[in-house]
Amino acid sequence: MKKTALVIMAAGLGSRFGGGIKQLAKLGPSGEIIMDYSIHDALDAGFDKIVFIIRKDIEKDFREIIGNRIEKVAKCEYAFQEIGNLPEGYTVPEGRTKPWGTAHALIQVRDLIDCPFAVINADDFYGKEGFKLIHDYLVNKMDEDAAAFDICMAGYIVGNTLSDNGSVNRGVCKMADGDSLKEINETYDITKNPDGSLVGKDADGNEVRVDGDAIVSMNMFGLPKKFLDTLYENFPAWLDEHGEEMKSEYLLPQEISRLMGEGKARVKVLKDHDKWFGVTYAEDKESVQKSLQDLVDKGVYPANLYQ
Length: 307
Fold this sequence. Notes:
single chain, alpha/beta, Spore Coat Polysaccharide Biosynthesis Protein SpsA, Chain A, 11-stranded mixed sheet, 27% helix
């Protein structure tokens, strides 16, 4: 069977581990963090190895708290995203401290990936279905030699991604033919009205209605290996345009959208019916703990993932 890898973007984790770092909050019944569930589900789906993208300054703590445990059940490798990792001839502008974004993070795994791969955020709970859908697509359906990049994306029903404790921002998908993605429209401050309808704001701040069955992107993509070369090759041009800005980021969804617009990529949306959740607000922690306990009680997960 074709090999596959899971890339977890964790460079945004804080340099000081503890209760204040939401990605490392112990939420499962045996002290599991959200990342534990993603790795468990990915291995169940058939992924062959895990690649963590972290910062060098948190490597020791990361290995002690997460990596050493996962290395007992899976092949793991590490890539390091640092603000100074720039092409020759480019420098970090004085005063910039913000990382260069998710597309820049992925460039760091070029030498570690030799197969199709999925990419996820470290602090999001995706559920089992997305990993199975993407793994199946990578192994059985992806055309790695297609002229336009053959990409897949787990598409979540927007109602399954809301928080009870405040508004959320989501990339609402506009479909072309069937399950082909046409574009992603960033929609901000999505909230549920008392009557159950959803409203949000577009990029200009105008109120827009959001269909309760709308599909949204939660940054869970399946990509061919050669896509990493394109991110690497296009980064200097992005830096020429944005490199002196303090907060601009070289982002994966934006690069995929740009390539789609140029006819250089096509994205198949794989509809995912699982409930997505994360700790967007401090108040979310209790509901996430309850959701995970409910999944354990239903037998979806064991009480101790790696026992």
